[in-house]
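In this section we walk through a basic example: taking a raw amino acid sequence and producing a predicted 3D structure, encoded as discrete structure tokens. The instruction is simple. Fold the sequence below.
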Amino acid sequence: QVQLAESGGGSVQAGGSLRLSCAASGRTFSWYVMGWFRQAPGKERGFVAAISQGGSSTRYADSVKGRFTISRDNAKTTVYLQMNSLKPEDTAIYLCAADRSNRLVVDGYDYWGQGTQVTVSS
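The resulting token sequence is shown next.
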């Protein structure tokens, strides 16, 4: 089992940047595909990005391609989401998740963090 804790959220103006971090407990972090999701008020949770166990493969939602970058540091058991050129529609709670399926899936993750709020003002 793995426990996840996000940090790095905050308020930023449109066009700005934020870097989210997700620290994982446990020595098995490198076994998991890691993903970022977001949930805006009144909307369903949606996939943002995923990264393979070793970090060599990534997958992004079309809405964030070219603006967001997912990365991981297995030695620090942490996954990151660098968010650039932020837009008001990026406002949401951002959650990280871990999956044991060995595929860059967009749903069905096994473990979830509590989330961190990102607010982008125009």
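Looking at the output, two observations stand out. The radius of gyration is 13 Å. DSSP finds no helices and eleven strands in the chain. In the next section we compare this with other chains.
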